[in-house]
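Postdoc handover notes: sequence design on the structure in folder B. Input tokens:
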């Protein structure tokens, strides 16, 4: 655990403890008096902790109604305390939904979950923080983590919630992940990026019965270019192949430099995007490049394609091997033709 994570854990535990005490005092207040004093007026100490927290703090009663909404939650969500307190917690989730098309569905789901969980005190997100995106009233979007926990009462359970804005952290992590998954020379995905993203796409394809395939390519004359023209020209050749692949394939396909002069593409073909069409398009773009690039060399590339079965039962590693074998067969065929 990093220092930042430890501090975050300590802060969350402190806020949780303060919120539990607030809930207990609130229950006690209701039981003893009908006066209009709020629980925060009863305890300035806990009010100070809650109100000065950067994290959002929310207290929800046994019926699902918001009874506390601190300044941190105002900053994170863009909703003021006046607009939040007195409303059902699920109606606020509906208001903050990033998709208006699904806001009602989200509100209903949150409502059903909270109502059910408040009855037995088992709250989703009690042990692990929930992470989701919200859309604030001004249209801006934030990524948040929310930790919830039960507070037992005589009528059932209240709910405490601590929310943290992690938008900046997510952006940094996304940038770092992108850096780790990219090949520095070509800007394509590297082997790690290919493995992670293609596995994800294969799992998605299995769920929806979408066909998948792998295209594999190897630069035939890379050694000659490096030895004869120098490694700078070799780097240019690799960049050229990358641009040809980008031109050939779609944004949704995973295009990667697997190492050295070898490249792979994970594809979810559709319509006329068949293996023969893909190979034909690639060689057409390669020939156009050789005619127009004004390089000291012409690129020669061998390629192969492997198609998954109807149920996507073939793993990515096996598809890669099959496509590689097809590519090597083409390379041997070219060599045999030159040796005649």
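Designed sequence:
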């Amino acid at each position: 655990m990093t220092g930042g994570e430890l501090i975050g854990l300590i802060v969350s535990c402190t806020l949780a403890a303060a919120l539990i005490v607030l809930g207990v005092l609130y229950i006690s207040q209701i039981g003893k008096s009908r006066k209009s004093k709020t629980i925060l007026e009863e305890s300035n100490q806990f009010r100070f902790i809650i109100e000065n927290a950067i994290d959002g703090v929310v207290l929800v009663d046994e019926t699902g109604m918001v009874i506390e909404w601190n300044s941190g939650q105002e900053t994170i969500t863009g909703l003021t305390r006046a607009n939040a307190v007195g409303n059902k917690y699920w109606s606020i989730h509906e208001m903050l939904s990033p998709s208006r098309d699904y806001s009602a569905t989200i509100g209903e789901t949150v409502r059903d979950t909270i109502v059910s969980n408040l009855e037995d005190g088992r709250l989703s997100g009690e042990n692990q923080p929930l992470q989701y995106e919200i859309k604030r009233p001004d249209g801006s979007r934030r990524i948040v983590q929310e930790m919830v926990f039960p507070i037992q009462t005589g009528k059932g359970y209240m709910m405490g919630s601590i929310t943290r804005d992690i938008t900046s952290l997510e952006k940094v992590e996304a940038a770092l992940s992108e850096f780790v998954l990219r090949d520095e020379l070509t800007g394509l995905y590297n082997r790690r990026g290919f493995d992670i993203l293609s596995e994800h796409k294969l799992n998605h394809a299995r769920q929806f019965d979408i066909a998948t395939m792998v295209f594999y390519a190897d630069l035939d004359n890379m050694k000659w270019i490096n030895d004869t023209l120098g490694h700078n020209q070799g780097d240019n050749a690799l960049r050229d192949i990358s641009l040809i692949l980008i031109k050939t394939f779609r944004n949704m396909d995973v295009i990667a430099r697997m190492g050295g002069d070898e490249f792979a593409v994970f594809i979810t073909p559709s319509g006329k995007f068949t293996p023969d069409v893909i190979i034909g398009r690639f060689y057409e773009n390669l020939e156009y490049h050789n005619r127009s690039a004004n390089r000291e060399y012409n690129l020669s590339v061998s390629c192969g394609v492997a198609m998954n079965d109807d149920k996507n039962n073939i793993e990515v590693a096996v598809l890669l091997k099959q496509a590689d074998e097809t590519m090597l067969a083409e390379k041997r065929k070219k060599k045999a033709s030159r040796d005649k």
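Context for whoever picks this up: Residues 3-32 form the longest helix (30 residues). Don't rerun without checking with the PI first.
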